[in-house]
Design goal:
The structure is a homodimer of 106-residue chains.
Chain A (H helix, E strand, L loop, with lengths): L2 H16 L3 H10 L4 E2 H8 L3 H13 L3 E6 L2 E6 L3 H23 L2
Antiparallel strand pairs in A: 1-3, 2-3
Helix pairs in contact in A: 3-4
Chain B binds a DNA duplex (30 and 30 nucleotides) through helix 3 and helix 4.
DNA sequence: TGGTTAATTGGTAAAATAGCCAAGAAGTAT
DNA sequence: ATACTTCTTGGCTATTTTACCAATTAACCA
């Protein structure tokens, strides 16, 4: 792999890596139904506020979500709805995997 | 997040995590043009055979690719072409990010 | 001003990931 | 049988990721 090709795939991997965590996928799913503040997401996820804040910054740095400060709160919203279609594909993969498992068991 | 919800998003994250590495994305891209043996992928990526083999097993365990042994060689092929559409979305995100960067610079 | 809420940032320890080398397994050929 | 090729697995180290706590910043209110 030459330098440019490696750089191209590394950039893609950085975006995907931002999505490769249960809490971050949960955030994306939740934001697909509308904007949420950090406090709401923290409550739903059930982790420390600082943990959720860091997850949000990872998604923001990847360009997947956007923040909007209003008063003391910060609201986040999806900027890339196409990731939802991606998640549909992931769901398909999981169903196929489950079926393959079932058929192995007879 | 209750146990079931967490389990659901963890399962999704496992699939996505399998895609979150430059070499593994390269493999998916390469396989989108047809099956390849481990030796071909190793040559293209330029890493140790054992490293590539481990990347392949990660993708296989996630249900994204399938192996087919023929003689001493093992050929891999995509089982989930829908991941390619996912990668299109990633490309879109990257372009949007690049544009945002440009506009910040004026 | 002082107090309160909301969120981010720095620090740290535990866990997961990645890469190479060495060794082993499986097939083919001489 | 021996040698050779192809691939996988185990071992090890280095790097990255994750989560919590503590401290800080920022906005609002009494």
């Amino acid at each position: 792999m030459d330098i440019q090709t490696r750089a191209r795939f590394s950039a893609r991997a950085r975006v995907i890596k931002a999505l490769s965590h249960p809490s971050r996928l949960f955030i994306v799913d939740e934001l697909s139904r509308g904007e949420r503040c950090v406090c709401e997401l923290t409550e739903l996820i059930g982790a420390d506020t600082s943990t959720v804040s860091k997850h949000l910054s990872i998604l923001r740095n990847a360009g997947i979500i956007r923040d909007d400060k209003r008063g003391t709160q910060v609201f986040y919203q999806l900027t890339m709805p196409c990731v939802l279609r991606f998640l549909d594909c992931v769901e398909t993969i999981m169903q196929e995997n489950a079926q393959a498992q079932m058929s192995l068991m007879g």
